[in-house]
Amino acid sequence: MANVLKKAYNATWGKYVFAGLYDAFLARVEKHGLSEKRAEMLAPAYGRTIELGTGTGLNLPHYPDSVTELILTEPYPPMVAKLEEKVRDYPKRVQLTVAGAERLPFPDASFDTVAAAMILCTVSDPKVVLKEIERVLKPGGQYLFLEHVRNPDPKIARQQDLVQHGWYWLGNECHCNRPTLDTLAGSSLEIVDLKEDKMPGAWKFIEAMAIGRAVRRADGAGAQDLGLASVGVKSSAMSGSSSNGSAHCDDC
Higher pLDDT residue, 204 or 235? Predict the structure, then answer.
């Protein structure tokens, strides 16, 4: 977005509608099963953990006890204000850092787990973010992700292309038609678990989602080096049903 338009957007729609009513927007899909999918995504989390694009903190209740230290990052000021409210009531100690996923203020190889829900659709360059994730992960560390992705059905994918411009403004720069799984498969992270699924209760053009786990290989080789650049690696088929409703990215 142009700088002037972005400032106007943040001061109006972004602050009072997108961030202000974000949890209300997501209440339907959370109730229909997205909350359980968040728990599924975060179940393997352990050790020193950082979450990217934490939004209003909808993942907070789902972190397991195996997480020994939790750092939350969020770049969007209206979301930070909402997140601060939830952190105050969170029973465990957490650190909140205002930072974008493209440039994290942490040393190399400093985390066991990186977690993120629905952020690769909003960042300006997902490849840069994936490289940054790899940088802060310890060798053998894991990246846990939940993303809504380009629909594998060509007809629905075309719908995504058609609504993208309007959705970009409504969803705070969300790109609902990004081929996120292809980008992940082409990165230097190795996808070891992948479940292609549907977001419960969401509109069809944003229902396709993926839950998975990728690791930073200890030997430095990535998935593309091993000939594993297919998103079908350890993948289960897209499943579930949908109904008309609404959903937004966790940091759209």
Answer: 204
